[in-house]
């Protein structure tokens, strides 16, 4: 083949486009060498679970490759005055809706990358992002990780909503700040403006206990982790005064329920349940994950009452039943289990991992 034809073919394999990049300072024009990878229009683990989990799996693998190579350099400059270049990016301008839980997981993945590489990819074409998505991410503190000056206020009010920004905690002992914030959220939706009513106080005390149980043993020394992780927890919450609801999201990158639950000293009823439901020959690696999460929500502790991932979930289920409404969703590794407001429990699994354990409560007060 003639040299000219070879060169033309090589050029045909490249994709060059002009983009705008932001790294916390002034926006710059840059050249992108690859086609962007589009994000789902609806980034939500509840209403668009398959696409959302798959998208985060791609982000995690991409970031992990950079971490394992100890190579950042997301923006390349031949000289100080030359036009910057990037190899590719995830196109967040395609996102029309983003849930609180998705924003928390996104923040955790970016913070993990920043911890190990001391940098994150630039924000691409920010002016093209949906304004609603930008506002929500900004209120939750996502842009602080990307270089924006952090807001000193943990709680932000927007009409009938009071939002607790994403808070990272290194261990369960540091959750006192979350407890204080939840009390303020409870007061926001309480009937009595001068004091939090008894039902709200009781509810928040149980939520705090469950959060402590969920986080206390997430990072176990005997567990091998697929990806480099931060021994941290990410929490956010929102109070809706008009609907009198609290929504709380908790995420960690630690040992998952499907990893720790199978090795427990279980009671006979739990063993019978698992033997009846588990697949004899799973079609993919994580197919039984949803079953283990469902068992954790249904039965809770082991015979010897050892600490494990999932302790406290039956208590949360009981609380939702007592209140007469509310929802609970748990995603851990490749599985999920959800309790709807009518009490119906569903579960399932996917070939992709969420990279840890995500818990979301919606409490109707």
UniProtKB/TrEMBL annotation:
Lineage: superkingdom: Bacteria
UniProt name for this protein: ATP-binding protein
Species this protein is from: Octadecabacter ascidiaceicola
């Amino acid at each position: 083949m003639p040299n000219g034809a070879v060169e033309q073919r090589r050029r045909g394999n490249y994709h060059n486009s002009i983009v705008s990049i932001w790294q916390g300072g002034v926006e710059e024009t840059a050249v992108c060498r690859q086609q962007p990878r589009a994000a789902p229009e609806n980034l939500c683990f509840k209403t668009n679970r398959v696409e959302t989990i798959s998208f985060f799996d791609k982000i995690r693998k991409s970031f992990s490759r950079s971490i394992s190579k100890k190579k950042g350099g997301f923006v390349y400059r031949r000289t100080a005055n030359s036009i910057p270049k990037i190899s590719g990016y995830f196109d967040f301008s395609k996102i029309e809706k983003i849930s609180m839980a998705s924003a928390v997981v996104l923040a955790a993945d970016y913070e993990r990358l920043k911890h190990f590489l001391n940098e994150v990819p630039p924000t691409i074409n920010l002016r093209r992002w949906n304004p609603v998505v930008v506002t929500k991410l900004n209120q939750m503190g996502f842009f602080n990780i990307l270089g924006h000056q952090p807001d000193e206020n943990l709680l932000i009010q927007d009409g009938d909503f009071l939002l607790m920004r994403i808070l990272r905690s290194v261990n369960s002992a540091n959750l006192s700040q979350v407890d204080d914030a939840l009390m303020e959220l409870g007061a926001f939706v309480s009937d009595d403006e001068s004091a939090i009513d008894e039902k709200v106080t009781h509810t928040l005390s149980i939520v705090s206990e469950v959060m402590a149980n969920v986080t206390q043993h997430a990072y176990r020394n005997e567990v091998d982790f697929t990806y480099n992780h931060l021994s941290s927890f990410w929490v956010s919450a929102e109070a809706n005064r008009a609907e009198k609801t609290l929504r709380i999201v908790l995420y960690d990158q630690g040992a998952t329920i499907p990893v720790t639950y199978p090795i427990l000293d279980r009671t006979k009823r739990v063993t019978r349940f698992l033997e009846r439901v588990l697949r004899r020959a799973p079609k993919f690696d994580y197919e039984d994950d949803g079953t283990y999460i469902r068992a954790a929500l249904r039965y809770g502790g082991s015979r010897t009452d050892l600490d494990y991932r999932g302790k406290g979930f039956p208590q949360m289920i009981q609380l939702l039943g007592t209140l007469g409404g509310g929802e609970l969703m748990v995603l851990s590794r490749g599985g999920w289990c959800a309790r709807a407001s009518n009490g119906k429990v569903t579960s399932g699994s996917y070939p992709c991992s969420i990279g840890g354990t995500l818990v979301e409560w919606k409490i109707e007060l």
